[in-house]
Each structure stands twice: as C-alpha cells, then as structure tokens.
# Entry
Amino acid sequence: MFSVYFFIIFSFSYGSHSHFLVTSVYLHGNGATYLPDNVSVPAIIAFGDSLLDPGNNNRLMTFTKANFPPYGKDFVGGKPTGRFTNGKTLGDFLAKGFGVKEYLPAYLDPSIKDSDLLTGVSFASGGSGYDPLTSTLAVVIPLSVQLEMFKKYISKLKIKVGEEQAKHIIANSVYFISAGSNDFLTNYYIYPIRRLRYDVFGYGKMLVKFAMDYIQEIHKLGARRIVVFSTPPLGCIPIERTIAGGLHRKCVDKYNKAAQLFNSMLKQEILFLAGRLPETRVAMADLYNPLISIIENPHQYGLEVTDRGCCGIGIIEMSFSCNKLSKLCRDDSKFLFWDSLHPTEKGCDIYINLILPNLLKSLF
# Structure
C-alpha cells in the first residue's frame, strides 16, 4: 500500500474569465476521486482490448476468455465476470477515479440494466487491436464492430433519455481506447503476414493511422474527451520474458524498442490531431514509463514481484491455462501481474493513481 499527498492546480476558462482551482489529493491505493468542483463526467466509455474488457468475450467462440475461476476471485462475491484479472480492471478504476461509478460493465453482459447505459459501458474485447487482422487471428470483436456497438448504444440512450440528454451524455463523457499490444505480440511477432510487408517502423505507422482514424470516427459520433493508451513495455510482460527473454527471463529489448517507437509516433500524431478537432480534448495515457518504474522499483509501490504472475508458476499461464486447478501465489496484492499477461487489481489501482492527475489536466 502506498500513500501520497500532493497538490494539483487546475486552470480553466468559463466565458471571458480564467479560474484557478487548487485541489489537494491524498492517494492511498484506493482509486481516489479528484475532479475540479465545476466538472462532472456523466459516463465512461471504453474500446479496445483485455485491459478494458469486463466480459464482452464471454459468449464468443474464442480461447481469449476469463469467465472462470480463479479469474475474479477478488471481485464482488468472488465471481469470474470475464475480467482478465483477479478483481477490478483499469476500466473499473477509471470509472471510480472520474467519479462515475464503481464498476464499468460489459456492453454485451446479458444482465446489464438501462441505468448502466447512462453511466457508461465497455465495448472492449480481449485480444483485439488496431490492425483488423489481429482480431481475426484471435477470433474476437474488432474495433470496427465495437464502433457499431457504440452506435447502437447511442440509439438506446436516445430512446431512454431523449435526443438532447443523450447528446449531453455523449459530449461530456470520457472515452478510453486501449490497443496496440496484441498487434505486436500476437500478430506481428508471431505470424509472418505483416512482417513480410512492413518493418517495425512501417507497421507502427500503420497502427497509428488506424488509431487516428478511430479517434475521428468516435469524434463524429459526438465524443469530445478522448484518451488513448500507449503500449506498455511489451518486452517486460512475464510471458514475453519467458518466450524471448533467455534463461534469466530478462526484458526483451526488441519488443520494448518497438513499443517506444510506436508510442513516440502515437504521441506526435495525437498532438497534431488534437489541434485539428474543434472543442475536443485528446490525450495519451502513458502505459510504458509508469509500468517500467513499477517493474524496476516494486517496493516503492508496495509490491514484491513484477517478473511473473500470481496464477500458476506465473511465467506462461493466461486465459484457459490459468484455471481452477492452478496454484495461486499467497498474496496477490504483492504482485504486479495476475497471470502472465494482465495486471492484478492492485497493479491496476497503482497505475491509475499514477496517471490520473495528468489525465485530468489534459482533459479539463
């Protein structure tokens, strides 16, 4: 557990007047909320991959699932919901951090209520990516279909609350997109289809183009506060250490450099695009540097293990290979990773607390 006091100065404009708000924030690893007093976020909307998928894959014929024990063992009632972790995901902590609600539900959850739609849902699908081929290979929901689901969501909102209120919710919500990791790790570096045509720079450039197009698509539908996650340090994910990190399971430099190159191009294009979209805030949430800091300095964040997951022996298990027969670590709150690919609830909590102050400054 970590605790930090610090102060944030928010600068914002209303009419012809500029205002400054000084807010003190106490973070104690529990997803603190610290929006400026004059700001409210009606809903959180998520697109992308397993970092934001709370169970949309459950009814798919795919191996990319997590709707069975021990996944969800620390969630409400110890229930496996399809979240790729032991408890809450990044999406859940974002929903709480922006003062919306405790949990971000899956749009395809059959038990979802109309009231859930008013405060946001996730369309994300574990295994998805910017590259349409990535979703095809994993047999999951591509971003293009997630966009169509969002259009249906908007129609449902209009029926529920009327045209004007629906427009208000869409315009003032915060949108998150998490993709890119699967494009490199389960597509580019495994299958030859893209590598025969693109080097790493060319493939990264293509992915960035897909990302920019996607931002513009949701902008056309009314989104005005958009956050795009960068890729994490791909070479330090436990399963990649195992596969390509040698006898000592070191971080794979080649994968980390690919992530850094992609993130650099993504950041540059986001800054350029943000200046072209009227009355819109577009920000990049850095997954790379905060996770590197946690991996290299675990004790600073109350963790002990960052090179393997809690499930099984933690170096290769994920999805169906992490199951009710798998042995678990004694204390998952000391682990950054739950399985060999996805962070624990504690890891998500720490990460969101690290990035949320900068996100708020970028969005409001």
About this structure: The chain has one domain: 42-363. The two ends are 29 Å apart (CA to CA). The chain is about 40% helix and 15% strand.
